[in-house]
Design goal:
heterodimer; A: Jelly Rolls; five-stranded antiparallel beta sheet; four-stranded antiparallel beta sheet; elongated; B: about 475 residues; Porin; 6 helices
Amino acid sequence: MLRLFLRLGTLLIPIMVSMSCVKDVDFEQVEDLTVTPALEVSLIRFNEPANRFVDSGIEQSIIRDSVRVEIFNDDFVVDNLRRAEFLFETTNSINRAFDAEIQFLDDNDELQHLIEFGVEASETNQEIISITEEIFENDAIADLTATTKLLFTFTMQASDDGSILDENSPGNLKLRSKAAFYIDLITPDE
Amino acid sequence: MKRILQIILLFSCITYSQNKQLLYGFEEIPQSLLINPGANVNNDWYVGIPLLSHIHANFGTSSTTVYDVFADDGRDFNQKLRTAINGMKDTDYFAVNQQLEIFSGGFSFGPSFDSNEYISFGMYQETDVFIYFPKDYAILALEGNQSNINRVFDLSDLNLSGELISVLHLGYNKRVSKKLTLGARVKFYSSVLNFSSTKNRGSFVTRNGDNNFYDHVFDLDLALRTSGFIDDNGSDAYNNSSTLAKRLLFSGNDGLGLDVGFTYKMSDQLVFDASLQDIGFLAHTNTIKNYELNGSLIFDGINPVFPETENGQTAEDYWEGVADNFEDLFDVEETRTSYTTWRPIKFNSAIRYAFGKKMEEECNCIKEEGGYLNAIGAQLFAVNRPRQPQLALTAYYYRQLFNQFRFKATYTVDTFSFKNIGVGISANIGKMNFYAMVDNLLEFQNLADTQSVSLQLGLNLIFDKDE
């Protein structure tokens, strides 16, 4: 009896198998899988009035601050970051020029990377926009992923005509910045 | 990572509809009582061959097939994958369902001249996994937010649930009159593993900002509930088969369910029947681990608070605040709160018309039924799912060949396909009953391009009334 069923089964299964087939499928293609998302993130921003550079009637030529950033040396970033593009946009309507400096520092406050750019004076207090881009790629990525701190320094240059800012001086210095991170989440093995 | 993805991709393409259109109404097979406890019973008693009486697996996908993505056609794999993902909707789903009967049996009783009552019982194990395609998450992972500024990523796209349970059941069936048969089955569920994340809400969007280039707006309300993945001591249990096996009975995460059904003979030839399966719940109170992610945040960058003097305070405090906000936002809260899950309720209904009188040489006075050799019918199937019910409509032809061989062919229209043709056979050789059913036959020419396939087979010992 059981033999009959086995026979029935051995008859049916080959029929089903012979009817079925899997056509030209290549699962090895998954080796080609590429997942490379691009992330855009807002970074540092400020908008400071001219009198920020004045304290009790005396000009303060330097404003400086540091920001701890742990995202760059996060394991995920260290392992997968292929390229990073930083973009700094300054909008100045103060009648003074500035030198901007952004230091990328590691845990021991050692300099890994330096970005410097100038900000033009706005003689008529019209907004002057300037853009600075910095790209980290290849070996430079290591400088970025070692960074745990960003130190911003804006140094105000002396005026051409010797004038001095006071509490009522017009204009603002504005900074907007963003970074684009290109992530190699999954790439074909070399 | 790739290995995991490969498994996910394969798994994604193995999915299921839970429709048992071939077995429903196939009265010669005792397991048809599992779909409609109020089906006509025409055996005196039966016993299923342990572990072989009902083996069921059903695979399908509502959208992409393996072939769409993995075809060896020279096209770029990544392009095919992205085309597939872009072509899919967040209501497309992948699912797996599998059942294995551990034991089963049934017997009739009542007056010897008309034993019109029937008890059936058994135990089976069931796996049910149902995953909606998390489209927005897939797009975000593939592309990132750079090319999707202003696109609102809908976090409710994450919608998945799965369970591994055992079901102990007892059914009662009574032919109330010549026309009407009623039946019900009580079920005792024991959950081995359960996970569900079906009520997620929230969004993520990157917008052009005022103070900075972008505002990143997070609004998270996500939750995942699990039971059984840890043991009583809190350590991982999902890969410990002996711990899992013990939970097949009285795992502590138990539940109750009910099936009801009827068959109504409108005339000698016209029959209408319907059933509801798995009206039931499971209360998860043990080995629970839930995860919750709640919070909202708008981030537009870090604003250094420039000190009054060169050597004054720094923005560290401000940054600490930003970091804390992010930590709070992505802080996953773990809880042990009990929860209840509802089983997917299944509805089946059919109308059938029998024709073609059987010619018999000898008068058979006992035989009341089976007087017709052919039947045609139409069936409706529905199962409730987290987002929307899943429906299928089937037309079928049923034929008795020789004395002990029955055949059923179905044509089914559902979300998977418009060309689903299935066949089922039931053969009795002596007391031994063998049945096998498979659908989506047309797709067998290329299994990789199949959106769903269901397979059922089993062995029973059946003892008929009229023998």
